Amino acid sequence: MIQEDRLFPADPTTRSIAKRLYASIRDLPIISPHGHTQASWFVGNEPFPDPATLLVQPDHYIYRMLYSQGVPLEDLEIGAAELKNPRRVWSIFADHYYLFRGTPTRIWLDYCFQQLFGLTVPLSGKTADLYFDTIAEKLHTPEFLPRALYERFRLDVLATTDSPLDSLSDHQAIRDSGWKARILPTFRPDSVVDPDFSGFRQNVTRFGELTGEDTASWKGYLSALRQTRRRFQQLGCTATDHGHLTARTADLSEQEASQLFSQVLAGKAGPHQHELFRAQMLTEMARMSVEDGLVMQIHPGSFRNHNRQLYERFGRDVGADIPMPTTYVEALQPLLSRFGNERGLTIILFTLDETTYSRELAPMAGHYPCLLLGPPWWFHDSPEGMLRFRESTTETAGFYNTAGFNDDTRAFLSIPARHDVARRVDCAYLAKLVAEHRLEEDEAFQVAQDLTSNLVRKAYRL
Amino acid sequence: MIQEDRLFPADPTTRSIAKRLYASIRDLPIISPHGHTQASWFVGNEPFPDPATLLVQPDHYIYRMLYSQGVPLEDLEIGAAELKNPRRVWSIFADHYYLFRGTPTRIWLDYCFQQLFGLTVPLSGKTADLYFDTIAEKLHTPEFLPRALYERFRLDVLATTDSPLDSLSDHQAIRDSGWKARILPTFRPDSVVDPDFSGFRQNVTRFGELTGEDTASWKGYLSALRQTRRRFQQLGCTATDHGHLTARTADLSEQEASQLFSQVLAGKAGPHQHELFRAQMLTEMARMSVEDGLVMQIHPGSFRNHNRQLYERFGRDVGADIPMPTTYVEALQPLLSRFGNERGLTIILFTLDETTYSRELAPMAGHYPCLLLGPPWWFHDSPEGMLRFRESTTETAGFYNTAGFNDDTRAFLSIPARHDVARRVDCAYLAKLVAEHRLEEDEAFQVAQDLTSNLVRKAYRL
Amino acid sequence: MIQEDRLFPADPTTRSIAKRLYASIRDLPIISPHGHTQASWFVGNEPFPDPATLLVQPDHYIYRMLYSQGVPLEDLEIGAAELKNPRRVWSIFADHYYLFRGTPTRIWLDYCFQQLFGLTVPLSGKTADLYFDTIAEKLHTPEFLPRALYERFRLDVLATTDSPLDSLSDHQAIRDSGWKARILPTFRPDSVVDPDFSGFRQNVTRFGELTGEDTASWKGYLSALRQTRRRFQQLGCTATDHGHLTARTADLSEQEASQLFSQVLAGKAGPHQHELFRAQMLTEMARMSVEDGLVMQIHPGSFRNHNRQLYERFGRDVGADIPMPTTYVEALQPLLSRFGNERGLTIILFTLDETTYSRELAPMAGHYPCLLLGPPWWFHDSPEGMLRFRESTTETAGFYNTAGFNDDTRAFLSIPARHDVARRVDCAYLAKLVAEHRLEEDEAFQVAQDLTSNLVRKAYRL
Questions:
Q1: Which CATH superfamily is domain C12-38+153-460 in?
Q2: Which residues of A touch C100 (CB under 8 A)?
Q3: What is the pLDDT of residue A396?
Q4: Do A325 and B327 touch (CB under 8 A)?
Q5: Is it the case that residue A2 has pLDDT exceeding 90?
Q6: Do A399 and C102 touch (CB under 8 A)?
């Protein structure tokens, strides 16, 4: 199902260059500096329960497509703590596998099926049981336990995404176990810095309890954040992450910020003030990053839970997050005016709005010392999306203002497949440059190494 | 002039795959579910008058280009009920045919000249008379009568676009004639639902007279719409079409909607209320579609009659409609919050703003059960436009949330050429996926069939 | 370092077509109708001082990239009237030359190093001195004096960009010298028509002194502009240029305009009135162009001096200009409603927002007789940028509503390289059309000539 030369351009000259480049990086360790796997898997090191629980239920790429074609989420047992009928869920998925033709999900899954489970017949309704049984059986063998897979995947770093309210006890437990994996938390404070996050006010209260700070005061609240960042750093954290609706930043005086915080906390602030508070908090986070060296990641532009009926029935994250037009130029200026020339600061920008690649992001990253471009995100971490990213940013920002690849996934088993796609597409892009004499081949080998390893380590300070 | 391998990638491997795919679909019947041909042609079955009247005068792609290069519209007799000097119009067009180099118009016309009229020398000032005479002569032969062409084109369905104020007597006459063609009306209510449509208030009054409903009341107005939709359905209509400036929708209470309608009808509403009324009417149309099963098409984003001087001299539709930035995410939410999860509803979304393909439309169509993506529209129904559409939407929405091709044309003779271009570009895209091992060749054959026939029939319920 | 076939597609068929096309235009004279070289160079005809002063200091493409990777602008002596240590600046640049991999800067510079200076080892820290010494030596030979280079570059026209406050004495001196080069001024009135331009009010006063008009009155101010345009025309000027933040135009009555001018000049106008004034001035410029035949160029969409700290330390133009989202459809309507159908008017539109190519600019240029599309501008005058421009505009506007290439550069030595890139990319694009049978090869030869020469001369009335 998957071919040796997949994702390389058909032109023979270009393909042969791409193959040479790829051969030089295919076996490099995987660095995964941003994602949504669970540290807990590696504490207990229990087998993953079954194919549907592992591959279908957590993957919104999969169930959003099925839902779009009329499969009820109930039939897929989305939201269930434990699947009642995993074989039936798997069978529905298999029946609809043709829907994924032409999508990256298909590439990731075929890779996983073939490389990990040795399956070589295509998945369909007919082969659903064969797949289910083969995968289910293997999942209970020692080689498929979470820690074994971590090592088999040649993971060098695996970053999770964590709330400031999380004790990080799983990360601590991994460390305490003596297992030498590098599984690192990422500081994602949305739940305590975004007034529209569900439960925001209670979260801030709880945050005070956890940190022993008076989070009802601006000063105490900031202290709690500082303290928690340190706590994360002690467990290896090197980065923060911020998922606001917009990229807006602000640079209020301490007094203005303090008053705004009080209003927000008192529930007396309207939507504009909420937005302003989020904006100010990005600048506060930048200030703390200048102090403590944590790398900032900004992921704006996702309209969350667009489908209100589903949201009411199933809650957050059921696949109805839709990108919005996003602008960065005016939005980031307050933060950049304050900290944009700080040599010690690194901010990695992401976008769901591809129009910003050549218009805003590449020109900004090609100027400001603190800015780097994160890889194509979410709907765009696909072969065409990755190619558009390189084609739209390289000529202005070069390669060296980019930060390598993120798999950004909940789907642990897809990690090698995703990195493999990224490596192949980068090599395909580089091969085109070489074939068109826009880059020397010896330089392309160096760039391929840089994109796969060196730029990631440097960007994320690993 | 036209070559066997046109529009296929130059790489030999990819081209040979494209050719195989194309051979499997080139002879499939044409389904034309959205367009602007006239049912009346097929009633009288009179010969088309002459080349200029048939090919130049109705085609705004042609005269907008000529106008942009300094040809006065008067010289082309635009707006004349009957051409006084069709040979002269044709000659001006022929003199300027070089302007169309690199445009789809050129591809469509060369196909039509060569395949239909057997012309093999290029069109230019020198060959203008040869062309005029050859075409004029053939147009008066039996094989070039409208019904003969319908059959020769292997049309399976041909949908027109019709006002609720139209009696559809031409459609009725075709049915009554016993001729077995499938020429279907489409319900396009802009003239009675858009307060900015010229003559809106008189239209609503006349709508009341035609339907016998009290269209001065909200209830009667809605009844008139319902009744007229049923009338259209009785003549085979399966779809509605909506050409608002924006994609905005609203979900007002019955009382609010009723009051707004009164204000609008009394001429007391300002631009914001007009926009709100259009927004509400999209939701009303969706509600009726849930009831009666008509498929909704939404075509937003065209700034109509941008050139005011021309509009004052020549009226609507003289080629000065310009696309606007369009957003869908917030705009469609009121409608989708109400009806977005209805299994029985189909809404086909179009855009003139290509930035929405990957950012908004593919993510929405890849989630909501009711949404499908219409093909690249208007300025974008070109080889590059079609390719960008597939490259920007497939990875997120797949193929199966798209609705096949529309020719969307007034130019009857260009229909086979337009479908041929669409089929070739789809095959070129699929061939690239196959050549890069992103899709199996056997699957590509299936997808090619689906894009050409199955998805169109399913989307439009034909 | 540079290869014969650079920038041509790898596919052998397509490449061979591209080579044939390119061979037919590679030696055509260079027409440079828009740029930022200095007429003064050609008056004194003094040697350029040294490699760093010539190639690094004036080129914001270069130092913005170095700055983005942490090189202080002070180390590059940006802003210094004379470089204290050009060899050190050159050495820093050489050390970081790898940053430009994949960028057009790299292509331009390698071309210049190899073609002009005969350097064939790659530039790096190791070869920095070899480069510096080789270039420095050659710069002091007769063949590298400005006038010799002008002739060696086969320049046919070289337009500069000039303020209405400039005496144009350098242009006069070139004429007086009897040297037969065609170095033409361009009328760029931002300093006296943009209220936000630094020193605007003093500029207007000085403008009155220079012209002998009462520039405190609207009438006198317009007379001063008219008079100065005539003065420019007497020295060969054929075009104006306008660099506002947006493309907004207005069409005020004379009384409204006059009042607005008074308010603006009195310093009593706010940002909205400033914007309105700029908008009105574009329409005034169009009115004067209808009278005197100067071609208008509009370059909107650059957020100037985004990095406030750098602006405060180094002033304007230190590489922190960032593109903004730009819209044209509503913005240009007031001007176009007034003058859009004037046969004698030419307006060349540029953009930094590539989303407008297919959505707005091509549809407008493909309709309005006065509009032409300028080439990809600034960050987009790169191989991918040029290709996106052709792919996004040709199908709607054709080739004949475009205006050929601009090098738009301060970097005199890069002019041949930039035109060479443009010619190669156009040939690559045309070759693809030919290989895919979308254009006949004989037509492609004609189009290549037109894009390189004929359309430029026609657009700029040269």
A1: Metal-dependent hydrolases (3.20.20.140)
A2: 398
A3: 98
A4: yes
A5: no
A6: yes
Task: Please tell me the distance in Å from B323's CA to the nearest CA on chain C.
Answer: 6
Rg of chain C (C-alpha set): 22
Q: d(Cα B349, Cα B373) in Å, to the nearest integer?
A: 5
Q: State the Cα–Cα distance between residues A194 and A279, nearest whole angstrom.
A: 9
Determine the topology of domain A12-41+146-460 in CATH: TIM Barrel (3.20.20)
Fold classification of A47-144 (topology level): uronate isomerase, domain 2, chain A (1.10.2020)
Q: A385-397: per-residue pLDDT in tens?
A: 999 999 999 999 9
Confidence of residue B295 (pLDDT cuts 50, 70, 90): very high
Which CATH architecture fits B12-48+143-460? Alpha-Beta Barrel (3.20)
- Which tokens belong to B454? 């199955």
CB contact under 8 A, A103 and B336: no
Contacts of C325 in chain A (CB under 8 A): 327, 355, 359
Å between A398 CA and nearest CA of chain C: 6
Q: What is the mean pLDDT of chain C?
A: 97
Q: Could B303 and C329 be called an inter-chain contact, meaning their C-beta atoms sit closer than 8 Å?
A: yes
| C314: chain A residues, CB-CB within 8 Å | none
ipTM strictly over 0.95?
yes
Sequence-ordered list of residues with C-beta below 8 angstroms from that of A274, at least 6 positions apart, any chain: A194, A195, A196, A264
CB A52 within 8 A of CB A83: yes
All chains having 3 or more CB pairs closer than 8 angstroms to chain A: B, C
Q: Mean pLDDT across the stretch B426-447?
A: 98
Average model confidence (pLDDT) for chain B?
97
The pLDDT assigned to B317 comes to 76
Please say whether the beta carbons of A37 and A171 come within 8 A: no
pLDDT for res C318: 78
| Candidates B15, B306, B326, B360, partner chain C, best to mutate (most C CBs within 10 A) | B306
How do the domains of chain C map onto residue ranges?
12-38+153-460, 47-144
C355, pLDDT greater than 90: yes
The pLDDT value given to residue B83:
95
If one looks up domain B49-142 in CATH, what number appears? 1.10.2020.10
Say whether pLDDT at A67 is over 80.
yes
Q: DSSP per residue over B253-286, as a string?
A: -HHHHHHHHHHHHTT---HHHHHHHHHHHHHHHH
Give CA–CA dist B375/B387, Å, rounded.
11
Residue A340 contacts C where some CB pair is shorter than 8 Å: yes
How close, in Å, is residue A122 to chain B by CA atoms? 10
